[in-house]
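Record format v2
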Amino acid sequence: MDTKPQSTLPVLVEPPRGAEPHAPLGRGYFLGETRRQQPLPMRESLAKIKNWFRANSLWVMAYGTGCGGIELRPLTTARFDFERFGMAMRPTARQSNVLIISGYLAVKSLKRVIRAYEQMPSPKWVVGLGSCTINGGMYWDSYNTINRLDLYLPVDIYIAGCMPRPEALLAGFGELMAMIKRGEANGWNHYLENFDWYKENQKKVINDWNMPDYNW
Amino acid sequence: MPLGVKIAWSLVGVLVAIAYGLVIAGIIRKVMARIQGRIGPPVWQQFIDLGKVIFQRTATRHGWMFYLAPIFRAGGGIGLYLLVPVVIGVPALSNFSFDGDLLLVMYFIFFGSLGMALGAADSGHPHSPIGISRGLSQMTAYELPFALAMVAMAAEVHSFSIHDIIMVQQGGILHWNILTNPLAAIAAFIAFLGMNMYAPFNIVGAPQEIPVGPPTEYNSVFLSLMMSGRAILAVAKIVLYMDLFLGGAHSILEAFVKTFIIYFWSVFVGAVFPRFRTEQAVRFFLGWPTVAGIAGVLLVLIR
């Protein structure tokens, strides 16, 4: 497999202005934004305010792919309660900002995950949960799971472990919030900029590709 | 008071009502969390959610009814609020109440749901029509005790004006309609449970069943319009109930206290009950709440 191309994006979570939009980028990328070569100072501070709102109201897509989904339940209930950080589970892709890939990811699920990810509205983040998303973990030689999630979706933060405890998840989400506030978590821009590379990788493993190239 | 000033005050009132509705929703999330033994989100979490949703970029494209539905939803809430007098004797806070507004109010309460039904059907997601069909069947059921209670109130004062109904209740707690006509009040407050869609009547959203129901496909600005529309509709409804049953309010503080109590009646019921199925909810509303409503009307007639 190829190595992942390096991102050349500025620090802001706002899309890079002046960059030429990619073919599928028309919506969800430059929508409603005027493109400028240099972001104005006012726009920069507005981006900071937007990022504060985004970081303090993370809506998680309620979708568990592997055994790691079991660690998300205690996270929502009385003992670890992630709602105190403003997070909530949303059952629909249209209203969620965070996609958690919880553990091993079968190729069959990858197809659904890609559809869900591409349907999410634009500031969106992917959290890789457990070592299976990093290198395959204990499923590294399995015939139907992927080993590196990074090749198919832009992962913003990994939470290592097999399985990571809910405390580790909370620490990971805290780090994700800090990254969003600093404007560093812009994996979704990376996905759109290197769209061909991601699609090529996805089509290498998904044999029955019977869906459009981009799922609105 | 000149009309322009009145319109300006009403716009301020709408904004305050939206903020109050969002704060109430935040307090509800906190109360629910405390009941479940959690810490819960901060009270202002709804404002953060609203801001985040506004700053999202939408990628969906649907028919034009899809875009109109949130406007109907917000318009229904704002229209209802503008018809209900909030504080007696203060022209700035009495909104656009007129003779016969009770009839229009009964229409506006359900206006948003009907607009939502059209928009959700246009979104094409299978969960949306399911939620809508559940919601509309529940609506037709709780509308009956609600309408009967309204008829009882109107028959009592021989007027369809909310202002007249408030004026009859002046002169102490014993004059309030909740005590002079308890049967109609029971019917109306049970219907209020169905209107607010907390458990046991949360069959429209139905978490874990049809994930969020009608707004499944809505995001970004559309969702923010629906959130603020929901907030102002909730405030308008509790203000209406305060006017009809708790004798209205003479000051803003009194209005806050009374509306808060009315709203939390449905929240505390919702915190401890499981969910009805659709046909159970319909059967429930057409049972003794309707009988109580009819008895309330009869009580007025024989008095």
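Chain B touches chain A through 31 residues (CB under 8 Å).
The two ends of chain B are 39 Å apart (CA to CA).
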